[in-house]
């Protein structure tokens, strides 16, 4: 039965392996391929941590004006201190009500979202 299946199939291969890869065609193939290929580095955009509500919110204009008056470096220092104090208040609150670490992290994330919506992180 196997012979009847293969009997009708013809082959289109008319040569040996030596002539197709290692024979006379090999020299022309080597000459057509460049020796050195330069590949540029892929361009990756830098990830940006940006507030989606930037410039929006009730307190955003006040935050922007304050930042322009005192300077960006000093403003970021004050903002960092304010965020640290607020996190301490949240931590103390969680200790007083007996909340675990997961609930505390949830409250901190909620405070950040509210700060973004209100414009404190503009």
TrEMBL record:
InterPro entries: PGR5 (IPR037497). GO terms for biological process: photosynthetic electron transport in photosystem I; response to high light intensity. GO terms for cellular component: chloroplast. One of its GO terms (molecular function) is electron transfer activity. This is Uncharacterized protein. The lineage of its organism: Eukaryota, Viridiplantae, Streptophyta, Embryophyta, Tracheophyta.
């Amino acid at each position: 039965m196997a012979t009847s299946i293969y009997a009708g199939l013809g082959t289109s291969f008319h040569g040996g392996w030596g002539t197709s890869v290692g024979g006379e065609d090999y020299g022309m193939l080597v000459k057509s391929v460049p020796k050195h290929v330069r590949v540029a580095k892929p361009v990756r955009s830098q990830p940006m941590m940006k507030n989606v509500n930037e410039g929006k919110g009730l307190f955003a204009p006040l935050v922007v004006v304050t930042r322009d008056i005192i300077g960006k470096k000093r403003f970021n220092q004050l903002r960092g201190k304010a965020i640290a104090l607020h996190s301490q208040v949240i931590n103390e609150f969680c200790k007083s009500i007996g909340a675990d670490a997961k609930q505390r992290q949830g409250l901190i994330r909620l405070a950040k979202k509210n700060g973004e919506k209100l414009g404190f992180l503009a």
